[in-house]
Structure to design on (536 residues):
């Protein structure tokens, strides 16, 4: 095939290429269906198209967690806005210096000097890397997709991190207070320490405990808590054993009692338990547990109900589940898995 | 996130941004983060540097929110800003020669189907090698343009702005890459859909 070595025509001049428009996301309705039927009829060709597209687009590369960036930018944009305000104030004081007689000028100099000193102090307090909050010096534990971690803190608290999770422990943990910061999901088995409640901060949700075992799920704005034993206070609401609570972004707390915790806390025992979950919803958990990128080749698959227990999170276990248990046709390119009905 | 230049999403985001609405800005960051990071990563080939580049662009957008002048689309503006910063990194990085070598064969990720026969496996590996050879013929700029078109579904005008090239050049890149793919299919005896 050599006619495409040096093409001189752009797409405007030549015939419309359905497949290219489909790859560019410009097709809908019956035209898109025509391409999908073609792919179903030519499975080898479909594989080649996906490999080619994958090689160009780079499906293998998973971006880091967006929330990290958002929080980083948030911290710095507040600093930037305050700095802008301070600078314009100091500028005004300096301008005054040049237009006044000597005696008044000395007062202005004192004012200007004070402003400058205050400004320097303000800047140093606000520069994030010398911030004097309890999280200035801290240890951060991070798991990637497909990974879990076990952590033991100096007070005897035992924590299990689910995949795609970050946990920050301040340097002075368990000296005067016990506060940790979570982004993701973790299971806490908290050692009782009199007079020092254990606090988990996940976004704006604050969970306070004395000695208990519970799980926190904070991958998104809505935070979910599940209590295995003991009592837990979240944003003022008290939870007991076998309670599952959800806190929405506007701080509304909803509590369900007497819940089965296997599905919600399975990760702490090395299991991903999915119970009567539509495939569309299950994809997020599967992606994190197995470090994959599941795509639906047919949108109708979104409603497929999944019941499964995954243990090692290996690609083989997952592919077998799709292929054998659910009878789907599976094409995987790198870590992207595309599902089709048989 | 923004289905094209001047889409409703874009206008809402820009309005919120100009108002200094932090929540809207967070949504913007969350929505564009993954695509911008992958775009930066393709250029700099380092996860941490890509992250730095995207962070800096978001912060810069916030700092200059009152004066933003966006011609085509928010997406194109952001990608263009990321591209400029990533290229600055490459210029300053003495290991730039390493970057040129990472484009090439071996970029086709391993694939497979559960329960395939040995014959099917051999045929698949042959196809993989064929695809890898075809990908190796694509220069970096072409791969970049096609990644924006088939990955982020951008219009040619947006690709042109994001990459700092002309619209005709963007069309030509995609056209040639598609012809390469079509050539692969014809070698297999398959005609593309009509």
């Amino acid at each position: 095939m050599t006619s495409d070595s040096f093409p001189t025509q752009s797409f405007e001049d030549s015939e419309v290429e359905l497949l290219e428009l489909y790859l560019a996301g410009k097709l809908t309705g019956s035209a898109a269906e025509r391409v999908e039927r073609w792919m179903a009829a030519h499975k080898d060709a479909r594989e080649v198209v996906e490999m080619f597209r994958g090689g160009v687009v780079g499906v293998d590369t998973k971006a880091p967690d967006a929330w990290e960036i958002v929080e980083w930018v948030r911290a710095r944009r507040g600093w930037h806005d305050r700095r802008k305000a301070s600078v314009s104030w100091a500028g005004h004081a300096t301008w005054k210096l040049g237009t006044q007689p000597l005696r008044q000028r000395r007062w202005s100099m004192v004012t200007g000097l004070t402003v400058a000193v205050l400004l320097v102090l303000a800047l140093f307090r606000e520069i994030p890397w010398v911030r004097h909050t309890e999280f200035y010096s801290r240890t951060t534990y991070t798991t990637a997709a497909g990974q879990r971690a076990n952590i033991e803190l100096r007070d005897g608290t035992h924590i299990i991190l689910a995949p795609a999770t970050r946990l920050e422990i301040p340097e002075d943990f368990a000296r005067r207070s016990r506060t940790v910061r979570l982004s993701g999901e973790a299971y806490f088995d908290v050692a009782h320490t009199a007079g020092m409640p254990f606090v988990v901060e996940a976004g704006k949700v604050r969970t306070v405990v004395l000695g208990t075992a519970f799980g926190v799920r904070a991958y998104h704005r809505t935070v979910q808590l599940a209590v295995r034993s003991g009592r837990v206070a979240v944003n003022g609401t008290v939870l007991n054993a076998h309670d599952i609570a959800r806190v929405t972004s506007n701080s509304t707390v909803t509590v369900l009692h007497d819940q089965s915790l296997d599905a919600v806390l399975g990760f702490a025992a090395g299991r991903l338990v999915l119970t009567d979950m539509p495939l569309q919803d299950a994809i997020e958990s599967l992606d994190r547990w197995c470090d994959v990128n599941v795509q639906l080749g047919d949108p109708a698959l979104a409603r497929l109900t999944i019941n499964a227990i995954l243990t090692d999170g290996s690609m083989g276990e997952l592919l077998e589940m799709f292929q054998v248990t659910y009878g789907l046709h599976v094409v995987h390119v790198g870590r992207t898995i595309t599902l089709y009905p048989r | 996130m923004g289905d094209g230049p001047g889409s409703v999403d874009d206008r809402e985001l820009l309005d919120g941004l100009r108002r200094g609405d932090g929540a809207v800005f967070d949504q913007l960051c969350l929505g564009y983060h993954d695509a911008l990071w992958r775009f930066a990563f393709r250029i700099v080939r380092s996860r941490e540097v890509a992250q730095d580049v995207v962070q800096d662009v978001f912060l810069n957008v916030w700092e200059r929110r009152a004066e933003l002048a966006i011609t085509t689309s928010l997406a194109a503006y952001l990608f263009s800003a990321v591209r400029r910063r990533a290229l600055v990194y490459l210029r300053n990085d003495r290991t730039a020669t390493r970057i040129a070598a990472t484009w090439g064969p071996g970029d086709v990720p391993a694939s497979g189907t559960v329960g395939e026969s040995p014959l099917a496996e051999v045929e698949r590996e042959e196809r993989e090698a064929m695809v890898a050879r075809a990908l190796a013929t694509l220069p970096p700029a072409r791969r970049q343009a096609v990644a924006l078109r088939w990955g982020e579904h951008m219009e040619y005008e947006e690709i042109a702005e994001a990459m700092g090239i002309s619209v005709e050049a963007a069309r030509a890149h995609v056209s040639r890459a598609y012809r390469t793919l079509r050539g692969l299919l014809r070698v297999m005896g398959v005609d593309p859909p009509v």
